[in-house]
Design brief:
This protein is α+β, with helices and mostly antiparallel strands. It contains eleven helices and six strands. Helix 7 runs antiparallel to helix 11, helix 8 packs antiparallel against helix 10 and helix 9 packs antiparallel against helix 10. The longest helix is centred in the last third of the chain and has 28 residues. The protein is elongated and about 80 Å long. The N and C termini lie far apart (73 Å). This is very-long-chain enoyl-CoA reductase.
């Protein structure tokens, strides 16, 4: 009697794999309704999908019906005001079945991150050098024959080095988690960088520009390197910023969107990872503080303050995301300023 009952139970109880397969049959064909995230009105239906299909597959199918909405322009969510879904998420993992709905948001015309970075960094490099190399064209013919202070030449070299480094990093170092951004950003970002470049360079290269109050001592202190209780030099900060970018690049394997907890490496310049989430922003802020001290120029100070405020906002956002994503993320780290912010 007992053997009969055991045999019956063994034959009729489904395995865990059978239950999952019945709930999400990998071979079944699905049709998903696409609705507008703003109005909830139906847009179209995407067919020939499986539970193993990804959001990227949905984007491809949608693009085949709506030619103007290329994949990088599309964003999907489970609720009208929900979180945007990642390309590699499968329909099955999201609990979607035949007849389910996805809400679509048009992100607008997109442009590649590399294009944006190259544009916004190339402009300041060229603009500053125009003011520096052609003072007669900007300030009048007499300006070309007037002598210049040494700090003017040093400032031009620092500015050129900074933006040349940024251009090279964009080409050879950075790995972006997103391929594109809204095309409006290229005008907004370029307006910020190009405008400040003209503002700062106009005053530093002006024939009436006066050198720092403490003369060469003040200028050289902005170049010499880290001096205890004084400041980091421009070049030291630039080197640290570059090394941090290399460390961040190495966190993401080529061709992936993988995210890892950034940590200090064997490179001593990455020690700030022990103190802040975004040490690249910390070094960037140090660089512009040094540039301001070196030139004693108010527009340079304004540029540095504006940049720090924006970088602090970005750093807080990244810090918050790391805390949400990684349970073991170091709680003692600050966002951008060690021990403070």
């Amino acid at each position: 009697m007992h053997s009969i009952v055991l045999t019956y139970c063994t034959q009729t109880l489904p395995t865990a794999k059978q239950v999952l397969t019945a709930e999400y049959p990998l071979s079944s064909i699905m049709e998903i309704s696409i609705l507008s995230a703003s109005s909830s009105k139906p847009i179209c239906k995407v067919a020939n999908l499986k539970t193993s299909s990804t959001i990227a597959d949905v984007k491809t199918q949608f693009h085949s019906q709506k030619k103007s909405s290329y994949p990088t322009r599309q964003s999907y969510r489970l609720e009208p005001k929900g979180k945007s879904l990642k390309d590699d998420q499968t329909l099955g993992s999201l609990g979607l079945r035949n007849g389910s709905k996805l809400y679509y948001k048009d992100l607008g015309p997109q442009v590649g991150w590399t294009t944006v970075f190259l544009t916004e960094y190339f402009g300041p490099l060229v603009i500053y050098l125009i003011f520096y190399a052609r003072p007669g064209f900007i300030y009048g013919e007499d300006a070309a024959s007037q002598p210049r202070e040494l700090v003017v030449h040093v400032a031009a070299a620092c500015w050129t080095f900074h933006y040349a480094k940024r251009l090279l990093e964009t080409i050879f170092v950075h790995r972006f988690s997103h391929a594109t951004m809204p095309i409006l950003n290229i005008f907004k970002n370029s307006g910020y960088y190009w405008g400040f470049a003209a503002f700062v360079s106009y005053f530093i290269n002006h024939p009436l520009y006066t050198p720092p109050y403490y003369g060469n001592v003040q200028m050289y202190s902005g170049l010499a390197g880290f001096v205890v209780n004084l400041l980091f030099c421009h070049q030291f900060a630039e080197y640290g910023n570059w090394r941090i970018h290399i460390a961040l690049r190495d966190l993401r394997p080529p061709g992936t969107k993988e995210r890892r907890i950034p940590k200090a490496t064997g490179d001593p310049m990455t020690f700030l990872f022990n103190l802040v989430t975004c040490p690249n922003y910390t070094y960037e802020a140090i660089a512009w503080v040094s540039f301001t001290v070196m030139t004693q120029c108010v527009p340079a100070l304004m540029f540095g303050v504006a940049g720090f405020v924006q970088m602090a906002i970005w750093a807080k956002g990244k810090h918050r995301n790391y805390l949400k994503e990684f349970k073991d993320y170091p709680r003692g780290r600050k966002c951008i300023v060690p021990f403070l912010i």
